[in-house]
User: What shape does this take?
Amino acid sequence: MVNRRRSPRGDAAPPFRNDDGRWQELLDISARIFARKGYRSTTLQDIADEFGVLKGSLYHYIRSKDDLLYEVVKSVLDTGLRNLRDHADSPDSDVIDRIRSVTRGHVLYLIENLVATTVLLHEFDQLSEQHQRDLPIREYQTVLEDLITGAKDDSRLRADVDPQLTALAVLGATNWVYRWYRPGGSRSPEQIADYFADLLVGGLLVHAEHATATAVPSRTS
Amino acid sequence: MVNRRRSPRGDAAPPFRNDDGRWQELLDISARIFARKGYRSTTLQDIADEFGVLKGSLYHYIRSKDDLLYEVVKSVLDTGLRNLRDHADSPDSDVIDRIRSVTRGHVLYLIENLVATTVLLHEFDQLSEQHQRDLPIREYQTVLEDLITGAKDDSRLRADVDPQLTALAVLGATNWVYRWYRPGGSRSPEQIADYFADLLVGGLLVHAEHATATAVPSRTS
Amino acid sequence: MVNRRRSPRGDAAPPFRNDDGRWQELLDISARIFARKGYRSTTLQDIADEFGVLKGSLYHYIRSKDDLLYEVVKSVLDTGLRNLRDHADSPDSDVIDRIRSVTRGHVLYLIENLVATTVLLHEFDQLSEQHQRDLPIREYQTVLEDLITGAKDDSRLRADVDPQLTALAVLGATNWVYRWYRPGGSRSPEQIADYFADLLVGGLLVHAEHATATAVPSRTS
Amino acid sequence: MVNRRRSPRGDAAPPFRNDDGRWQELLDISARIFARKGYRSTTLQDIADEFGVLKGSLYHYIRSKDDLLYEVVKSVLDTGLRNLRDHADSPDSDVIDRIRSVTRGHVLYLIENLVATTVLLHEFDQLSEQHQRDLPIREYQTVLEDLITGAKDDSRLRADVDPQLTALAVLGATNWVYRWYRPGGSRSPEQIADYFADLLVGGLLVHAEHATATAVPSRTS
DNA sequence: AATGAATGAGGCTTCATTCAT
DNA sequence: GATGAATGAAGCCTCATTCAT
Assistant: This one.
């Protein structure tokens, strides 16, 4: 996603290197190992081994280990947030559909970027304070809250809907996916995404309105 | 909770001592620091400092750092599971109420034991493989799945309810609480617990049946 | 000299260890190697080897390499300054004698503490800025300047004496000793000290007054 | 000064180039950084940054870092020694005047070449042993000693003058200048040079002969 | 129970140097 | 002449753990 290459030294970054592929490769490898072992339990040796260089050579690409984590995490966060906003802002669609769409979209994005998302969601606290401040992670919640708050006028929504708690519940259910989803499992990403969206909107019980509410394109389950 | 004292070295002759307060104190301190900084970023020095002994002296209480994590995590897991089962098994109550009750109970338990739960949920992977195997963490999911599976006969439940995905959604929404709940926030534990239970059962939309479904004691919102 | 022992961690220093000799030994060894190879060219490995421990074990005694340099240098500086002031302030002696005495005393002190003085004089700039600020190295010059300034009333002194340049000349000639003095050389410390004092006060040329000026106890040359 | 260009690799065929300006520039930059941070604390990266090339490219100019230090230091040493000898040997002038002149000349040279001199005086020990042997640094002392020894016949000189200690005192006072002189200070190079020469010859005290002794051109103080 | 010293392994990072392009 | 990637060695520092007292 992000292929702006940073020079390891100083701010006077040489604009572009010819083989940015190598940088992407490093990010991918790092993300994979961070996701598997955890940031703190990953050594630069681990990464260097897989990258095929000596560990000191990594410093041609990175400024520090913390910085590497930041780069891994920054790209998924940015794109993920854009993804979320795209679904939330879609101006022509019904507000309930947008809530459903945001939920679905978030789950799908998360699964498509499972490795990097895992790192983002699990290792965010390990970033330096400065790097944490540089990342708008609170925006995830805000986007959802705003969407739900904007929907409260809609009479189809329960009157006692709490945008904040709802946002947190949705984020919990969806983010948690990184803890259990494994490719090749019995449920496809789309099944999961749809099911979560339905559950959020309709709950577990049978309702008269349910049929209507689920009249959304591309539903699978 | 669990205050069976283990002997630090060798498996023989656990010296059951009466000053178990010191052992509990160590567990509490460790949990707090693990929760704040993460297991890998916590040093035994950190813990020893707060416990008021020198680093080496900790080995009068623990066998290893990994072991300490295990002890911290074991007690919340055991008690948490018992709590979950108590709510799930309550034989005299309606199955829908039990689903609601499990959800509520889990949230409340989690918040009441926020520190240790945080460690359990965030650092489980850092345990040695052996210790991971010793802990029945999958049971959480199983308890929920079984409860929902058992309720599928009930005609009030949507026919397409997926016990596994539902369990995972509920666990996600509730477990995630450790990531954002802070004492003194604007919502009380009970508000949160009730809201999550209602959301799961009823979804976001207004329904005719809603009035019935919410006939649960102590609802707040 | 300084045997206040610092604990490597935090400010809550355990007051005194029973074997402070080991700490002094470390300071001596460090000073010797710093003097021989230079601070930057000395590795903690070098020091640990001679101290007889693994390099990581040094951190039971020091907080950092920079800190070690500071400790080495702090004691000679403090004592050296006190030495200088003792000679400069001696209230009952003639001002000219005091100038001579300061010069002699400084040379003798420097030779007696050749190793540590070498480190102080050669490696001061390598200290962290904070540590540099903590050391009153400018005081050396000030003590001398003040002494000479105070002597300007005395009619025996040339009218055009410049306290600042004189202080710098004296400090240069004397401090430089660390660059060439080696024990067992052809001149004794006392000879050197006396000669430098005489040269400063009397210059190279024969003078009528010279005989008087050299009427100082313990002259050797 | 010395701008014989050496070939970077192998001793064969030094390619005398006409764009020696670049080589001089490199020497100047290196000297400046060596003087500021110390040889060991200077990285080739530091130098390359200021020189405007990448680190590796420096090896088109130098054989090694040690070699670079050698080149920086060699030129000031050679020229400085020639300067010293010129003042010492001036055949038509009085021997006392020559002593004064050598002192003055050395101070002035040192200040005029402050940066490179600093490196020479402070970093000489960091040179490889071979390079140290290649540089006739002991000659400084020898020139002075010889001059004073040659003057001992002169009845104006004190009978107990010690050529070696005197040479070392003079070199100390003058060389030390690199430790405190900063352009734009309150004393001009000439003032300093004259003052030091006078102090050496005449000392601090008032003497009858003083008037004669100071009959030297361009005296300032 | 506790101390204080030490170990041993390893972690992150730096840096002079090389080399194919 | 210059680049950019890499090497290899080493440097400082950390930390779980051990052990004699």
Summary: The CA atoms of residues 96 and 151 of chain B lie 8 Å apart. Residues 66-213 of chain B form a domain with the Tetracycline Repressor; domain 2 fold (CATH 1.10.357.10).
